[in-house]
Amino acid sequence: MRILISGGSGLLGSAVSQHLTAQGHRVTSLVRRRARSSAEVQWDPAGRELDPHRMDSMDAVVNLSGAGPADRPWTRSYVETLYESRIGSTVTLVRAMEQADNPPPVFLSQSGTGYYGNVDSAAVDETGSSATDSLLADICRRWEDAALAAPDEVRTVVMRTGVVVTRHGGAIGKLLLPLKAGVGGPLGSGRQYWPWISLPDDVAAMEFLLHNDIHGPVNLCAPEPVQVDDLVVALAQALGKPARLRVPEFVLAAALGRLADEMLLTSTRAVPGVLVEHGFRFIHPTASAVAQWVAGTD
User: Fold this and answer.
1) Which of 90, 126, 133, 177 ranks highest by number of CB atoms within 10 Å?
2) What pLDDT digit, counting tens, does each position of 148-159 carry?
């Protein structure tokens, strides 16, 4: 397949690009600077500029653009960046598809399980409704609406991705640093559910979605939802470290503000209903399995 990808230089985008290339697909990355090779295409998502003819030769578009929600405190300026970096990029891609003579048959666009907001311990699949009292949910709704405006002939999937567990980098990488030093522990009460997925499973799920007749929302998260306590303990045990130093909610709230409330302390027990229904097989379906992979003991 000929695949156009936005956000290809990020942690997830790099992993997806490398995997798809290794599988024999031809991956072209969208870049904001001048293109340096035939494997790159310049665009300006802030200015809504992308040559629609670039779409004509593509079999699929994978949209992973977006500033990292855990990269900086949620000041008013950074919240605007969170919105624009997602919605502006998606609108630019969709407009190019609308103007193309032959739009790509498949469009995978990133979203997040933040769409559901705080649902405590209730399991939610793709039929669950979006939270009305959450900034992150509002971002996800608008992001998805922009993607679902793609032409009718384009099979569009919005990927509601959970916390991506990696060996290095990303949000989990920040949690692993104190754990590896033996000074880490659960965040807040530890009873909140985090929807998570390993990086290899996330990449494999995207390839699965490229090849299977699935459309609409898809939860990209492991089939075993776990509370933060259980995930942190599993990671610590696999690393051979203690996990006794709990970080209280008030400390997180004071240090991180709304970011802590919306991402770290919110409980979202999302389950991958669509992936399971269509027979996707997870490499790391449990907290124990992903912890062993992170520690390099699997």
Assistant:
1) 90
2) 999 999 999 999
How many domains, in total, are found in the chain? 1
Res. 99: pLDDT tops 80: yes
Strand spans (E) along 162-266: 163-165, 193-194, 196-198, 216-220, 226-227
Cβ atoms of 196 and 286 within 8 Å: the answer is: no
Note whether 137 and 130 are within 8 A (CB). yes
Alpha helices in 68-162 (DSSP H): 76-99, 135-147
For residue 148, the number of C-alpha atoms closer than 13 Å in the C-beta half-sphere is 12
Token pair listed for 136: 């992150």
The CATH code of the domain that includes 288 is: 3.40.50.720
- The model scores a pTM over 0.85: yes
Distances (CA, A) of 14 to 9, 28, 142, 193: 5, 12, 25, 28
Mean pLDDT confidence for 247-275: 90
In the chain, pLDDT over 90 holds for what percent of residues? 79
Contact call for residues 55 and 61 (beta carbons, < 8 A): yes
The Cα 96–Cα 91 span in angstroms is: 9
Which domain covers residue 110, as residue numbers?
Answer: 2-295
Q: d(Cα 292, Cα 12) in Å, to the nearest integer?
A: 20
